[in-house]
Amino acid sequence: MRRRGAAPYRGRPGGRRGRRDEMFMIPVNYGRGSDAYWVGELFRVLWRYRAELAPLYWLAGCFIAGAWLHAVHPNWWPVTTLAGIAGIATVAIRPARLVERFPLLARWRVRLWGGGFIGYVSAWLSCAAIYGATAGPMESFALLGAGVFAGPWLWREDRRRLTRVRIVRDKFPDTADAAGLTGAKMVSAIMDRWGWTARIKLRRGQTYTDVVKQLPELESALGARVGGTRAEPVMEDASQFTLRLVETDPHAAPVNWEPRPVSVTGKPHLSITQPVTVGLFEDGTPITVPLLRKHVLIGGATDSGKSGLLNVILGRIAECSDAVMWGIDLKKGMELAPWSSVLLRLATDNDSAERLLKAGVDELEKRAEFLMGRGRREWYPKSDAPALYIIIDEYAELSALGQRYADSIARRGRAVCVNLIIATQRPTQKTMGENSAIRSQMNIRFCLKVNERPDVDLILGAGKLSAGWDTTGFDGAGKFLVSGPGMDTPRRGRAFLITDADVTATARTYARTGSVADTAGAGTSESRSDGRSGGRETTGAPLGVSGPEMALWAALRDAPREGVTLAVLQAATGKGRPWIYRRLKAGQARRHRDQPRLRPVEGHHPPAGSRYVSVRRCPSCARISRAPAR
Ligand SMILES: Nc1ncnc2c1ncn2[C@@H]1O[C@H](COP(=O)(O)OP(=O)(O)OP(=O)(O)O)[C@@H](O)[C@H]1O
């Protein structure tokens, strides 16, 4: 008997009573025979299979647009033609943002298809605007085009995978039943090269723990390989979990290096502000590591793949337009010499390494002063003010003085984007330098195979071994555990294998002006370690201060004792008076404490009508400031 005042139950006719979600359903006639049902069902199918039906939609869209253009705007055909040309040019140029949004555009076949499709549609629409969508052979051309372009569209690889995952989804209720998880449903799925990942909704009362217990049964029911499925809880909903099926083990064979698409100019066009991909996790997901303002430590036994991983990181940084690198390779340049067209400096012995690291310390100090003068706290890398990475292979071989400089960079370099990337076998206190805190400054740490378990804690930090991070059993070079921001669980990864040919190709593609290879006489450590880095330091400006800032710096440096006219500074920088005054004021704020007070310049006679800016060079530090007005 119904309680007094209780709302009447109005579930779906024929539906099961008692389900909580049905208690609140709005009474709608869902009868199978009703028109509304069939119209709704039709739209559902049209939407659900939109990708498969896309060729029909293109065809219909073209006929409608062509008929409309012909009837209303027959002289708009240049618009469709120009739109087509612009579309083809965009696909050919493939701006980085577009490739990020549609990664398939990195493949030439996809670009060929896309360019052809855009060209064909725009040509057809232009003709349809002039002659009509059904005039002469227009219909045949439309059908022919739809047929030609539909083939590759329907047969493309991700579509085939999508079809497979749909089959798995449709069969999932049976699979779940066989695995002892009756009532579980697959609510969404995405696929990648290595398998698929799905969100599973459990029957009421079932939990993630039940899933973990039933995982072997689920593997069997899915026909997966042993150990090929992973389940992870969904924290915000206890009735769901994420199921991942790894169809092909990404670590079974070396993971080949994947260069990122090159821009048409052939210049680096990616940014270090975006995380870089260095390999794949065991489940096939990419390992993306944020390198901006981060120091990196790579540790592992001999032959574990440290230099390989270092090369991968080098390759990734080379692809970025807003980062530059210096290298220290105490294996006499064996590892880093192939990158000499990318490295702005390379040191291959301890003397040159010390000088390079000293230059790194100077650079960070210049940057710090530069920021201070502008009231800023962090360096934002740009192509003309790049982040600087100092790569050090075999850190333990560095002299005590070199390690002291490195320690200084590790402590102070982050904010100003002067960062270290270090590879070493055992980062003990002794090898990293007594009294050195360098290890604790490392934000991202890669631990490759180690021979002794305590080495894990040395590389990754105290307590990691007991928390389940252990790489002693790793087989195969390049496999590692990585810890850092957002990487708090021990997930096994493998670095890309970058071959000598890949290194040569990458270094050639991203060769920098002013690199070691570009510098006259390059090839010996002496020629690379003479205190110059492609001539940038001779100005005294921080590395990467360029454009008008650099021009101002140079004009002030070369100014005669009596000063320079504002017009000269305007001509040198191409900037207006307010900009120059702002920069000069900032320069004055950076003056050394012990710099003598600036005096009016004697015998100074400005030409009539010109405004003079007197500059003065500090005798102790050679820094230049604007002298006070007379
Ligand atoms: N990601 C990888 N996948 C497959 N093989 C790799 C990978 N990285 C390195 N290797 C291979 O492992 C071997 C050792 O690599 P590497 O020289 O990088 O080790 P290492 O730890 O730097 O050794 P050492 O300490 O002796 O310098 C090389 O033959 C290399 O080709």
From TrEMBL:
Transmembrane segments: 53-70, 76-93, 113-134
PROSITE patterns to which the protein is assigned, alphabetical: FTSK
Binding site for ATP: G300, A301, T302, D303, S304, G305, K306, S307
Superkingdom to which the source organism belongs: Bacteria
Domain FtsK span(s) in chain numbering: 284-457
GO molecular function, one term: ATP binding
InterPro entries, per the entry: FtsK/SpoIIIE/SftA, FtsK_dom, P-loop_NTPase
BP terms from Gene Ontology: cell division
Sequence segments annotated as region (Disordered): 516-546, 586-612
Biased composition range(s): Basic and acidic residues: 595-605
Keyword Cell division: yes
Keywords: ATP-binding, Cell cycle, Cell division, Membrane, Nucleotide-binding, Transmembrane, Transmembrane helix
Protein name: Cell division protein FtsK
Organism in which the protein naturally occurs: Kribbella qitaiheensis
Organism lineage string: Bacteria, Bacillati, Actinomycetota, Actinomycetes, Propionibacteriales
